[in-house]
Amino acid sequence: MNVVVVESPAKAKTINKYLGSGYKVLASFGHVRDLPAKDGSVLPDQDFEMLWEVDGASAKRMKDIAEAVKSSDGLFLATDPDREGEAISWHVLDMLNKKRVLNGKSVKRVVFNAITKKAVLDAMADPRDIDVPLVDAYLARRALDYLVGFNLSPVLWRKLPGARSAGRVQSVALRLVCDRESEIERFISEEYWNLSALLKTPRGDEFEARLVSANGKRLPPRAIGNGEDAGRLKALLEGASYIVDTVEAKPVKRNPGPPFTTSTLQQAASSNLGFSASRTMQIAQKLYEGVDIGGETVGLITYMRTDGVQMAPEAIDAARRAILDQFGERYLPEKARFYSTKAKNAQEAHEAIRPTDFYRSPDRLRKFLDADQIRLYELIWKRGIASQMASAEIERTTAEITADNKGEKAGLRAVGSVIRFDGFIAAYTDQKEDGEQSDDGDEDGRLPEINARETLAKQKINSTQHFTEPPPRYSEASLIKKMEELGIGRPSTYAATLATLRDRDYVTIDKRKLIPQAKGRLVTAFLESFFTKYVEYDFTADLEEKLDRISAGELNWKQVLRDFWKDFFAQIEDTKELRVTNVLDSLNEALAPLVFPKREDGSDPRICQVCGTGNLSLKLGKYGAFVGCSNYPECNYTRQLSSENGGEAEGVALNEPKNLGTDPTTGEELTLRSGRFGPYIQRGDGKEAKRASLPKGWKPEDIDYEKAMALISLPRDIGKHPETGKMISSGIGRYGPFLLHDGSYANLDTVEDVFSVGLNRAVTVIAEKANKAPGRGARGTPAALKSLGDHPDGGAITVRDGKYGPYVNWGKVNATLPKGKDPQAITIEEALALITEKAGKAPAGKPARAKAKPKAAATEAKTTKTAAKPKATKAKAPAKSKKG
């Protein structure tokens, strides 16, 4: 009997069926150990010794693997086919060696690029040893990320209160978003005019031609800069006669793109389907691990973390056969297509992302997959099959026309395209963002019959004014594309990087655009001012290149760390003498458009408008930055620093409380005020005064007595429920507007609903909420929304919806899902990581299963000792699973 170790329990079950009774397949559930989230886990003074920690759940799994290996003939390490998978295999092997259970047994590494019977059996027949350079690259990357995060983040906490963290890739990605915002703020719009003529052929067909030259001079785009020039040229065209100089019809071929890589899949899923990067990877993970297709669990796509753009020869053959069967002979090119990547630092060790079987068309799988799974699978299938199809054939016609007005001449051009043969477009057309050219080649429309030397009749001259627009904000898709172009980070980490920026409140997403928040811009400005080198794009890309060279066996990983640490540590030490006044002066200059927005009256935006003599400046408080007057406390003007308010009228208007009237019940005054965290309503004075922040979307200038009374009077009693007789009330809480009845909450759609919803509608909303989830148990425990399977220590793991949102439950351990996490999309690996982290934080007196470390972990946990007692940090422990 041989033991096979994979990462996922879902894969373990499927692969065991393929291999048969001679194998025992066990799951590691992702990483089995990690660096503790505290100082001293990487020791530069001891040549970067790394002290690993094993949590309780992983220790139990490793104990099971060790027991199985003891009585086995050999061990196959079959974790995922990427750097992280290689690292997990290395960790498992290292721990088994320390447990002394191998005793000379054969140990081999195998990788499955797809979870199909053929792929699994082929891999088992061709094992190899662990790739040591690949492991070295993982160790170097892990050490670098740790050293940057656990040395740079404390500097931020000391010098920039309110900042959460910094990271080697995270901070550079944030800089991209913030730099784009600065471009937008600095942008000065310029006027330009476009002129065109609506013309008619002798056959009566109309078409439009654009002005491209005048008096023998070419007019580049936006060359006509004012209305006076536009008027002069329009007069020329109005009185001109028109004749066709030349007509050229040129055939153009458009070739298909390669199959998806990790980053191009994330980009296409964002543009075509509206998926976030993390959602795309969650769905792809499930498609890779396998879906029940008519009683058999089958992997539907190849491994989804890859830079490769080429398909295996047998996959190319299968795609060509499917093209012949489903599209016809004309759509099959004479020879197969081969692709190579253009991305910087790309690793092409694996196949591109493709279907495991091209004959499993989306229509055949539709009944087995949920809505999001089929949409993503269809995208992958179409792109994969299109990559081997014939080119699209497009005819592009260009007509050059001369306008002659008494010897004064101008040139016009009409361009049209028509698809003569759709080729690969029959299977797949990509959607572009930010006004990029479409993929079908028909953006110019089709021209009527036009012949050289024939005269055209003028119908109308169009003269339109335009203004240049600033560059668009990044979307997740365009940011990923830019990061890949620059060689920043790895495609497999992009989803996690973007999630971190959102979780830290450094960026928000509005209409799929990434908007840097004030906190994120402060962090970026600080790092650019005092750690310039470490947020430079070239430096980060160069470091990625060194990591790739380590994985290729060309560089020593310890030497790369030594070279990095020498300069980085010196930079950290220099900041110890950095005074807060120096930080504020630098940030005031770097963020001037944000801190000191222009005033409509043209006055100096750095002078306090309340006292007229004080200078405005950034101030740092316990909860972050704000703008205040230098004459404090004589002048108590403050203003919240926000990327959204864009001006300071709000702060000026609310520097002194604005009286709105008197509460008729209490007799206390209602006032509108501004605090460090924005405008709010206050009733009364002193410690007992009641306060209510303005809801999102409410502007201070729109607040009157009625709105203030409605807000300060929340929660609002709506009426008694007709069945229970208990009061239903509405209010605004941490998670938005809500209804409350008998201890249960139901969300309302808008803030306005809080003040207007009636009893009938409230009862309906509460009933709809109750019908979305099964009933509750005898003690009020929410019933399960989803069952994930059994915990390695026994007992079911379920997803439930509680009073404060969805959470994972195992026994007496409840772990809240991260903000924005879809409860239907969580995997058992993610659930185990959340449960492990929650259990490790349980206070004394909790059930035994909720304690941090069982005895089984004691031996391995001893490896976390440090040479000197390091100062603990408050950084959040990383999840143990890399999935999702």
Automatic annotation (TrEMBL):
<feature type="region of interest" description="Disordered">
    <location>
        <begin position="839"/>
        <end position="884"/>
    </location>
</feature>
<feature type="compositionally biased region" description="Low complexity">
    <location>
        <begin position="773"/>
        <end position="784"/>
    </location>
</feature>
<dbReference type="InterPro" id="IPR013498">
    <property type="entry name" value="Topo_IA_Znf"/>
</dbReference>
<dbReference type="InterPro" id="IPR025589">
    <property type="entry name" value="Toprim_C_rpt"/>
</dbReference>
<comment type="subunit">
    <text>Monomer.</text>
</comment>
<dbReference type="GO" id="GO:0006265">
    <property type="term" value="P:DNA topological change"/>
</dbReference>
<feature type="region of interest" description="Interaction with DNA">
    <location>
        <begin position="165"/>
        <end position="170"/>
    </location>
</feature>
<dbReference type="InterPro" id="IPR023405">
    <property type="entry name" value="Topo_IA_core_domain"/>
</dbReference>
<feature type="compositionally biased region" description="Basic residues">
    <location>
        <begin position="871"/>
        <end position="884"/>
    </location>
</feature>
<comment type="similarity">
    <text>Belongs to the type IA topoisomerase family.</text>
</comment>
<dbReference type="InterPro" id="IPR013497">
    <property type="entry name" value="Topo_IA_cen"/>
</dbReference>
<feature type="site" description="Interaction with DNA">
    <location>
        <position position="141"/>
    </location>
</feature>
<feature type="site" description="Interaction with DNA">
    <location>
        <position position="157"/>
    </location>
</feature>
<feature type="site" description="Interaction with DNA">
    <location>
        <position position="31"/>
    </location>
</feature>
<keyword id="KW-0862">Zinc</keyword>
<keyword id="KW-0413">Isomerase</keyword>
<dbReference type="InterPro" id="IPR028612">
    <property type="entry name" value="Topoisom_1_IA"/>
</dbReference>
<keyword id="KW-0479">Metal-binding</keyword>
<dbReference type="Pfam" id="PF01131">
    <property type="entry name" value="Topoisom_bac"/>
</dbReference>
<feature type="domain" description="Toprim">
    <location>
        <begin position="1"/>
        <end position="117"/>
    </location>
</feature>
<dbReference type="GO" id="GO:0005694">
    <property type="term" value="C:chromosome"/>
</dbReference>
<comment type="function">
    <text>Releases the supercoiling and torsional tension of DNA, which is introduced during the DNA replication and transcription, by transiently cleaving and rejoining one strand of the DNA duplex. Introduces a single-strand break via transesterification at a target site in duplex DNA. The scissile phosphodiester is attacked by the catalytic tyrosine of the enzyme, resulting in the formation of a DNA-(5'-phosphotyrosyl)-enzyme intermediate and the expulsion of a 3'-OH DNA strand. The free DNA strand then undergoes passage around the unbroken strand, thus removing DNA supercoils.</text>
</comment>
<dbReference type="Pfam" id="PF01396">
    <property type="entry name" value="Zn_ribbon_Top1"/>
</dbReference>
<dbReference type="GO" id="GO:0003677">
    <property type="term" value="F:DNA binding"/>
</dbReference>
<feature type="site" description="Interaction with DNA">
    <location>
        <position position="145"/>
    </location>
</feature>
<keyword id="KW-0799">Topoisomerase</keyword>
<dbReference type="InterPro" id="IPR005733">
    <property type="entry name" value="TopoI_bac-type"/>
</dbReference>
<dbReference type="InterPro" id="IPR013825">
    <property type="entry name" value="Topo_IA_cen_sub2"/>
</dbReference>
<dbReference type="InterPro" id="IPR003601">
    <property type="entry name" value="Topo_IA_2"/>
</dbReference>
<feature type="active site" description="O-(5'-phospho-DNA)-tyrosine intermediate">
    <location>
        <position position="303"/>
    </location>
</feature>
<dbReference type="Pfam" id="PF01751">
    <property type="entry name" value="Toprim"/>
</dbReference>
<feature type="region of interest" description="Disordered">
    <location>
        <begin position="773"/>
        <end position="794"/>
    </location>
</feature>
<keyword id="KW-0460">Magnesium</keyword>
<protein>
    <recommendedName>
        <fullName>DNA topoisomerase 1</fullName>
        <ecNumber>5.6.2.1</ecNumber>
    </recommendedName>
</protein>
<feature type="site" description="Interaction with DNA">
    <location>
        <position position="504"/>
    </location>
</feature>
<dbReference type="GO" id="GO:0003917">
    <property type="term" value="F:DNA topoisomerase type I (single strand cut, ATP-independent) activity"/>
</dbReference>
<dbReference type="InterPro" id="IPR013824">
    <property type="entry name" value="Topo_IA_cen_sub1"/>
</dbReference>
<keyword id="KW-0863">Zinc-finger</keyword>
<dbReference type="GO" id="GO:0008270">
    <property type="term" value="F:zinc ion binding"/>
</dbReference>
<dbReference type="InterPro" id="IPR000380">
    <property type="entry name" value="Topo_IA"/>
</dbReference>
<dbReference type="InterPro" id="IPR034149">
    <property type="entry name" value="TOPRIM_TopoI"/>
</dbReference>
<feature type="domain" description="Topo IA-type catalytic">
    <location>
        <begin position="131"/>
        <end position="572"/>
    </location>
</feature>
